[in-house]
Structures
1.
Amino acid sequence: MSRFHVRPEAVSGTRVAFDAQESRHLTRVLRLGVGAVVEALDGAGGVLTVRIERVGPRGAEGTVLAREEAASESPCRLVLAQGIPKGEKMEGIIRMATELGVARIVPLATARAVVRMEPRRAAARVARWQRVAKEAAKQSGRGVIPEIAQPMSLVPWLAQGGPFGLLVCLWEGATEPLRPLLPPPPCPHATLVVGPEGGLGDDEADALRQAGAICGRLGPRILRTETAGPVGLALLQSRYGDLAGGTA
């Protein structure tokens, strides 16, 4: 069955409105019309079975035939605070993080980051990243689209006070491996911090530790930033979430 995303506010009772982008995909790409039955992920964890009732220039509308909770969300709410890398690496990180069940992604400006994002460009970049998250959520069958936060510097982000849940930092300067430092499950909320290509500075690692972060290494090898985040998320999901069948 074809799958689409709708915003929570687009669902009113048994009526569903598809936005212009999803309507174009429905009618022009898949060539579906009135009477077709599709799945709609409502962005709030629900999977709707919808029959298309109207297709017009302003979009498509349908009737909800059934609703069930998506079984694709982790019992551990994961947040990725990612140092902004250069080029298009962030898009790949967002795709993989979404597939791994992350709930929110915070792009961080750090001391060693190569990219210096100008405020006037930030809004367009975040909108692009949000579209990437939406497509990855659709592909992976998630009922929730991860939120892409506005970029901000690491220290002000820490000063906001979270809540972070279990705060974890992957830092190449750490002397101990991360896994033995992690507390036993359950863990309902965790935040993973990953630096950009140049890594995190000593002052930034100190600020994270003062905020209560566990700083550790993933192993004897230094990973690229676009590898470290997904690997760290997979480690947390396997310990606290639903990767590999549960929280054991």
Note: The chain has two domains: 3-69, 77-245.
2.
Amino acid sequence: MKQTDFARTMTNFLSKYLPGQRNLSTNTIKSYRDTFKQLLIFCDSEMDIKPEYLTFGKMKVETIKDFLNWLEKVRKVSINTRNQRLAALHSFFSYAQSENPENMFECQRILGIPFKKRAKRPIDYLSQENLKCILAQPDTSKKKGRRDLVLMATLYDTGARVQEIIDLKIADVRLTKPATITLTGKGNKKRCVPIMGKTCSLLDNYINENHLLENGNQ
């Protein structure tokens, strides 16, 4: 079967452009890929167009709008997720218009689809009493409890995502003044975060207790 223009462009976008020219992380590329998986499911189930027959000629601005509505009404995704899918599609059609200039007009119409506004809710926060109660839960007489306390204190002090804590290396932790932790976030973006003295002390004890500076564990 002859490869369609849409299939060729989408494959190059995911396998060459995003990792090669944009240097995006594996997780970000996976999110983009999931957007297209959902789009292919929509075209198949709602428009009766099989993936192998999908072309730019069938990919109109109305198609993308219907897809976004389908995500919200049928797949029950949040507005945030809907906007993330649209951002991925904007990136793709921005790339596609230079690769397939004959489709530039329709690509630009799709790029004009706005993000959906959402109501902003008040930011929740922990009171000092709540925080003390949470940090008092681990049983620090046990090794596992001391580990849990270090994790909880570091999460709170740095505001890090769970994945950012999982990805931490010893080399990312500076315990001499000024004590900091270097976090690697989405898109491999790094940021240096100062930590409080108590967190620094907990990390120092944990590193020494588990001999993390020995045997090439850095």
Note: The CA atoms of residues 80 and 122 lie 16 Å apart.
3.
Amino acid sequence: MSKQRVLSGMRPSGKLHLGNLVGALENWRKLQEDYDCFFFAADWHALTTEYNGTEIIQESIREMMIDWLSVGLSPEKSVLFVQSRIKEHAELHLLLSMITPLSWLERVPTYKEQQQELTNRDLSTYGFLGYPLLQTADIIIYKAHKVPVGVDQVPHVELSREIARRFNFFYGPVFPPPEPLLTEFPKLLGIDGRKMSKSYENAIYIADPPQEIR
């Protein structure tokens, strides 16, 4: 019996923090034993907020991949890759944009939430509005059955399911609608009580020295 396929990605936009470790990487390491896993560095997604300072993206990809290997992700058990190296992600994103109502993107909860939180950046771009659509392309291009996510990302997977169904309605049963796979620790709070995030500047980083953590 063939294994179900799992796909997930991580933005290379700086040092990894405890939320990345507990909320994603430890879970990925376990999943690769039971699923056909695809894990990728989401460098195009990083451009949605770091478009005016891309140096950090390139610098972070290599360091992030090294961290993945150090916690037990294995190229012998999982497919590890960089999103922008697979141009078909962008092609499918373009095709999906032709059939996706704008209102579907505008209702994603994190769209308005991050616009309110990240006031030091201009997020009035299609790239930021449309990143759940690119996320959908990332998922369904590999016909992934499950997507390991935190609770705040469930609406994104639900949107991906709707878009996959809409595509299948127009063109036939091409893509299986993906399902969210909640992580054991779906949300780790940062030092200010919000979700731990580099963007919110509230993270404890894996490489932080003890004196800085104290």
Note: The longest helix spans residues 154-171.
